[in-house]
TrEMBL record:
Name under which the protein is recorded: Pirin domain-containing protein
Gene3D superfamilies, A to Z: Jelly Rolls
MF-aspect GO terms: metal ion binding
Pfam families reported in the protein's UniProt record: Pirin
Transmembrane segments: none
Organism: Coprinopsis marcescibilis
Length: 267
């Protein structure tokens, strides 16, 4: 019997890796000087960079177009400025979304004296030529503790449109067939997640510190039916093929510390 979910590990130490001194980066997909034809894109998901940026360092003003760019703040503070007039200091729990559309320019750097740890994620838009837009959302650790927080969702979903229109809280709107869930799972706890798309990607955030070798830290088991399962540690990720419509994935923290987990549900 074909399992409802099939997992292919993307181990942390196999990711692209760049150490520029002020910037230590891991690349899940081909990016900048890192190229691997086997890891270029997964559905609309194009970039997952796990970056650590030294205090008072960062990326000077540079342009982007035709990408949906969102930044998940793990620790530290980020100073953002862009050509749309947005200036903001972002901190732990914040999620910033820039729909670059026909073109924007921005700068991003560490604010304050502590190292900045972020996940920068890019997806391909469902259509080109969109008007650039900028959004920020905040999701506290309590909102993620042992439950799923829906932090990004397609801009065309009715509740997402309503939250944007009314200025209320809700997931950041993305112009891609992508929904992002986040959780901080306590030791011994487990969660289930219905996957509605044709594929998915999971990532365990490397919160225990920079490690260019084999992943350590938190340990998480992902499983489906028919005995399909995969154990991941911090920095590890996995491609998921969804073979059965409405398949449910089980996520269990099998380690001795909390685990911060991202699940991308993709069409």
């Amino acid at each position: 019997m074909i399992p409802a979910l099939q997992f292919v590990a993307r181990r942390s130490e196999e990711r692209g890796h760049a150490d520029h001194g002020w910037l230590k980066a891991f690349h899940t997909f081909s990016f900048a000087g890192y190229y691997d034809r086997n890891h270029q894109q997964h559905g609309p998901l194009r970039v997952i960079n796990e970056d650590r940026i030294a205090p008072r360092k960062g990326f000077g003003t540079h342009p982007h177009r035709e990408f949906e760019i969102f930044t998940y703040i793990v620790s530290g503070e980020l100073e953002h400025k862009d050509s749309m007039g947005n200036t903001e200091i972002l901190k732990r729990g914040d999620l910033q979304m820039t729909s670059t559309g026909t073109g924007i320019s921005h700068s991003e750097k560490t604010y304050g004296g502590k190292e900045l740890h972020i996940l920068q994620i890019w997806s391909m838009p469902s259509q080109n030529g969109l008007t650039p837009k900028y959004f920020t959302r905040h999701f506290s650790d309590e909102e993620k503790k042992d439950k799923w927080a829906r932090v990004v969702a397609p801009a065309w979903e009715e509740d997402v449109k309503a939250s944007v229109r009314d200025g209320t809280s809700g997931p950041a709107p993305v112009n891609s067939a992508l929904t992002l869930y986040a959780t901080i799972l306590s030791p011994g706890q487990s969660l289930s997640r219905l996957l509605s798309g044709k594929k998915a990607y999971v990532h365990v955030v490397q919160t225990s510190g920079y490690n260019g070798g084999e992943a350590k830290g938190a340990s998480v088991r992902f499983s489906g039916n028919a005995g399909s399962e995969l154990e991941l540690r911090e920095g590890d990720g996995a491609y998921i093929k969804v073979n059965t419509q409405g398949a449910v994935m089980e996520v269990a923290n099998t380690g001795d510390r909390k685990a911060e987990v991202l699940v991308f549900d993709l069409d």
